[in-house]
Write a structure and sequence with these properties.
Elements: H1 13-23, H2 30-52, H3 74-89, E1 92-97, E2 104-105, E3 114-122, E4 133-141, E5 162-168, E6 172-178, E7 183-189, E8 194-199, E9 210-212, H4 223-234, E10 244-245, H5 251-261, E11 264-267, H6 280-293, E12 297-299, E13 320-323, H7 325-339
Parallel strand pairs: 1-3, 9-10, 9-11
Antiparallel strand pairs: 1-2, 3-4, 4-5, 5-6, 6-7, 7-8, 11-13, 12-13
Bound molecules: 6-O-phosphono-alpha-D-fructofuranose.
Length: 342
Amino acid sequence: EEMEKVNTHIVTLTRFLTEEQVKHKEATGDFTLLCHALQFSFKSIAYYIRRATLVNLTGLAGSSNTTGDEQKKLDVISNDLFIEAMRSSGKCALLVSEEEEDVIFFKDSKNARYAVACDPIDGSSNLDAGVSVGTIFGIHKLAEGSMGTKEDILKPGTELLAAGFTMYGASAQLVITMKGGSVNGFTLDQALGEFILTHPDMRLPKKRAIYSVNEGNSLYWEDNVKNYFNSLKEATTENGKPYSARYIGSMVADAYRTLLYGGIFAYPADKKSPKGKLRILYECAPMAMVFENAGGQALDSHMKRMLEVVPEHIHDRSGIFMGSYDEIEKVKAFHKLSALGN
Ligand code: P6P
């Protein structure tokens, strides 16, 4: 019988980035080198997460290990790793991290033209429970002539050059998208230490009866949000089935599932958190860029395109609804209804 066709088109992230670079004649290779530093940090973080439980890295900071030195929490180690990877690349002018109160400026990186926002371990509170966590990142280019200031990163997501995330699950899954580009998924082959292209050109299904939200907050929700989610419980899709509820409580894991299967993920702003919980720079905006480039939508709690939201400060928050195109249209409809007083 016919020999099984061997997949000879193994594309590594390294090759993918080089192919992207040569598409742009004016490219200097700086962006490619920055992305190599990014992928290095993902591989390192994946390594530590794999060993976390074994060497008790999930313990609280302050507990000392056998050598008695200060035990660091995984998110501290991941943050340190990420900062050093950005610094040593020499291509990052400034970095915003969820773990750092202020912007980090890399003064020694002369002529660096990029600003990076990241959450080194998003969802870290789930780590001890073995739940998938992830690193979320966004890359901005400095304004012409700028030496690198806070303003270079306090920009709307529409100006993001690239964004994505790495989910540390059964294997490390990297999802990355460039401005105006497609969404591509890579899987880390630990034996080779390479991210392999496994999900080229990811497209969100236009609709899927899955909703992902923390219903424990529903008593704080605005009426339009309550009405929308209640409608899903009474909804019967074409095949007469109601929606499925899927909530992991780790944004990267909920986002990755929504990207693959479709449906909606939401963390609405509510009466308890009027600006929402999730951060714009390194959670909402990067995810919004991925979801839009995959054919979905991402809105804030005022039904404004998430990518057009301008953060007021580096840790600014927003409500977010993101997912299948048609599902987000329903959220808009309920928002309009309640605005009309229904
Ligand atoms: P809640 C994790 O703490 C996180 O920042 C996101 O990863 C996740 O989507 C959200 O918060 C979960 O929040 O209030 O449902 O526990």
